[in-house]
């Protein structure tokens, strides 16, 4: 995926040597859904990203979205002076963007001193954290047109703490606890991100289609247990 942003007044062209960009295609269909006769045409787009994404990756994704969204707009608009207002910008991290929506939805009002908040975003691949203060604007910020301020204090994330990664590692542990059965029936599995290989793993751990299928099937079983897990605590009767 290349980091090539659209240029004002220049429709995009595709050569026979261009590589397929699934993100650009997704953004194109997304743009077709957004830009309709009923909704109107939009030129300003804002994107959010996980905290742990490298800037290079974010720039490539943003460029793919810009190209896809441009393709969803009428060619006449792209060639007009109005297209100079077209922009796809990185606005905030995903947990910070969630905070901006959730604070209003929860009817939390900003104060002069500020209301502290924390967001823990447990995703499929990563887990993000964001901490900040929701406050009223200063006099200078009021003059600049701000009504509410979300002041970010800090953000971080764990690249391997996503829900899907945890389930994949649970599956790997189940597999390792049943090595004899897997050896007997020659049942291979994949080693997930963060998983450790063990002596004699070669016949059972690989990246073949069969191993991926076995891991996926067991993940579907483990997921139902993970999502519906209930603690059962045994307590002695107290007389």
The amount of beta strand, in percent, is: 15-25%
Rg for CA atoms:
25 Å
Helix-strand pattern? HEHHEHEEHEHHH
Report how far apart the termini are.
69 Å
Number of H- or I-type helical stretches: 8
Query: What would the principal axes of the Cα set say about the shape?
Result: flat
Oligomer: single chain
What strand line-up does the widest sheet have? 3-4-5
| pLDDT averaged over residues | 87
Number of strands: 5
Report low-confidence residues grouped into runs of 5 or more. Answer: none
- From the helix content, strand content and strand pairing, which structural class follows? alpha+beta
Largest sheet: 3 strands, antiparallel
Give the helix proportion (percent range): 25-40%
Describe the protein in words.
With 239 residues, the chain is α+β, with helices and mostly antiparallel strands. The protein has eight helices and five strands. The chain has helices at residues 22-34, 55-72, 75-78, 94-105, 139-143, 163-176, 179-185, 209-227, and strands at 44-49, 87-93, 115-122, 127-135, 149-158. The chain has a three-stranded antiparallel sheet, covered by helices on one side. Strands 1-2 form a two-stranded parallel ribbon. A hairpin with a 4-residue loop joins β3 and β4. α1 (22-34) crosses α2 (55-72) and α6 (163-176) crosses α8 (209-227).
